[in-house]
Amino acid sequence: MQLKNFTHLKSPVVVDPNWEVIVSRLVEERHRKSLSQEALAHKIGCASSLIHKWEQFKRLPSGFLFLCWLQALECEVEIKKH
């Protein structure tokens, strides 16, 4: 696991590898749909700088905004037990 320094937190935190996979897949889907960060932000209703920060692991979306991100890209999350 990697330590990331989220700008809204005072000290670096460990980013779970599952989160890295989820974000990577969401970025891939955004590219596959030929959406810019600005276009995605418009669909979600947030600033494009926020999309950039999520994709660069500089910020974590709230649960609500994470769901908005999924919906904007027409994606869903499947939960599996190891």
Give a structural overview.
- It is built from four helices and two strands; from the N terminus they run ββαααα.
- It is globular and about 30 Å long.
- The model has no long low-confidence stretch (mean pLDDT 89).
- A hairpin with an 8-residue loop joins strand 1 (2-4) and strand 2.
- It has a single domain (2-72), classed as 434 Repressor (Amino-terminal Domain), CATH 1.10.260.40.
- A two-stranded antiparallel sheet has the order 1-2.
- It has 82 residues and is mainly alpha-helical.
User: Globular, elongated, flat, extended or rod-shaped: what is the shape?
Assistant: globular
Q: What structural class should be given to the helix and strand makeup?
A: mainly alpha
What is the beta-strand fraction? 5-15%
Q: Rg, please?
A: 13 Å
Report, as a whole number of angstroms, the end-to-end distance: 18 Å
Kindly state the percentage of residues in helix: 40-55%
| Number of continuous helical runs | 4
Question: Major sheet: order of its strands?
Answer: 1-2
Could you say how many structural domains there are in total? 1
| CATH fold-level label | 434 Repressor (Amino-terminal Domain)
CATH architecture: Orthogonal Bundle
Mean of pLDDT = 89
Low-confidence stretches: none
The level 1 CATH classification is Mainly Alpha
Strand and helix order: EEHHHH
**For the record, what is the CATH homologous superfamily label?**
lambda repressor-like DNA-binding domains
What's the total count of β strands? 2
What about the largest sheet? 2 strands, antiparallel
